[in-house]
From TrEMBL:
Positions of the UniProt region annotated as Disordered: 1-21
Protein name listed in UniProt: Glycosyltransferase
Swiss-Prot/TrEMBL keywords: Glycosyltransferase, Transferase
Protein's organism: Micromonospora endophytica
Domain Glycosyl transferase family: residue ranges: 218-345
Gene3D superfamilies given in the database record: Glycogen Phosphorylase B (3.40.50.2000)
Tagged with keyword Signal: no
Domain of life: Bacteria
């Protein structure tokens, strides 16, 4: 957004009384809350909503809101008025410029929710504006494309190095970082040479645990895969694991790989059912009806495995990334060191060793109440 000819320094409304949950240090201060693009169902969007709940008087900025998202009160950048909003890959090189030309307004505090370049936004000078950034991950397609393949084309090597330089240089004004996991904390240190506190994302564990009796009484007969149907989520591997385990599979989600996955399902040796874009209640039913959640993917954190465990459903996944923090190997699931389907299927018979009560209790550590307390403490400490 381009503003007036001269910068405007925003002040909080006189006499405004934010809710008690608002960090005390932000009362009477103007606050900008910044997120990348805003999708309908993403985990980072859930985190951004929780941050916004903590600071209801904050102005909320995004690059654009996806067509299927209906979040009220978001202020979109000028990029939203261009065709580039339909292509994240094409828009990526422009994002640092967009964040630097977002608005001529100035704020006392900026809190960014970043998984690409949102942490480079500048809405005031470092002397007068405190910028805190909650990082879901340094942009994978810029810094670690091998994780999911995006940006790994050799032709992109030079542009990627340029974007790395820009990313580091334009984020020097950030006063403090929080990472959503120890995995991301280590990458922030490696790529940006900055320290970060770890604040795991909030998960609505109480809601998932408090399912109706009819959901809780299901027989748990199938394996379950949940998430975006895109290559790095390894849904083809999930199909192969189900075939090795000789158990029916339910795939819940949506994405561009749907045609390929349906072709795999037609040839599979086990029944495979598709649940396209299940709503929240249906997803909870699916968790409660599953024998196990299959999650063979290297994630930065991974909200889905925590949701499953809140329903007493164990997880079988890779012993990498966020699962090392969200799954207790041998107690709330099993972590596997390879991507061989047989290695994952081999632990399915051991699921009976696990305690449903232990699995559910473990998930409570990731509640929104805990997230709010840790975020408040971090903000208070950084803004003193």
């Amino acid at each position: 957004m381009s503003g007036a000819a001269a910068p405007i320094h925003r002040q909080a409304a006189p006499g405004a009384q934010p809710p008690a949950a608002t960090p005390a240090v932000l009362v009477g201060r103007s606050v900008a809350l910044v997120h990348e693009w805003f999708g309908a169902t993403g985990g980072s969007e859930q985190v951004f909503r929780q941050i916004a709940d903590l600071v209801p008087h904050g102005e909320r900025f995004v690059l654009w809101q996806d067509r299927d998202a209906t979040e009220p009160g978001l202020r979109e950048s000028w990029l939203a008025r261009t065709p580039l909003r339909r292509s994240k890959a094409a828009a990526l090189p422009l994002m640092p410029l967009v964040w630097r030309t977002l608005s001529r307004e100035r704020f006392d505090v900026v809190i960014s929710s970043s998984h690409a370049f949102a942490h480079t936004v500048k809405l005031g000078s470092p002397e007068t504006t405190t910028h805190l950034s909650y990082v879901h991950a340094p942009a994978r397609y810029v810094w670690s494309p091998a994780f999911d393949g995006r940006g790994s084309n050799p032709l992109l090597r030079v542009p990627r190095r340029l974007l790395q330089s820009i990313d580091t240089r334009l984020s020097a004004h950030v006063h403090g970082y929080a990472a959503n996991s120890r995995e991301v904390q280590a990458r922030i240190r490696q790529y940006w040479q900055r320290d970060a506190v770890v604040i795991n994302p909030p998960v609505d564990v109480d809601w998932f645990a408090a399912a109706p009796a009819s959901d809780r009484a299901q027989a748990r007969e199938y394996l379950l895969g949940v998430g975006r149907w895109i290559p790095y989520k390894n849904f083809d591997l999930i199909v192969a694991i189900a075939e090795e385990a000789r158990l029916p599979l339910v795939l819940a989600g949506s994405g561009p790989q749907e045609p390929q996955l349906r072709r795999l399902a037609e040839r599979a040796a086990v029944p495979i059912t598709f649940e396209v874009r299940p709503d929240r209640k249906r997803l909870r039913q699916l968790y409660w009806g599953a024998r196990v959640l299959l999650f063979p993917v290297h994630e930065d954190f991974g909200i889905i495995p925590v949701e499953a465990q809140a329903c007493g459903t164990p997880v079988i996944g890779l012993s990498r990334g966020g699962l090392l923090e969200t799954v207790v190997d041998g107690e709330t699931g099993f972590l596997v060191g390879s991507t061989e389907p047989a290695d994952h299927a081999s632990v399915v018979p051991r699921l009976g060793e696990l305690s449903t009560e232990r699995i559910t209790a473990h998930a409570t550590a990731f509640s929104p109440t805990r997230f709010a307390a840790e975020m408040t403490a971090w903000i208070d400490n950084e803004c003193r």
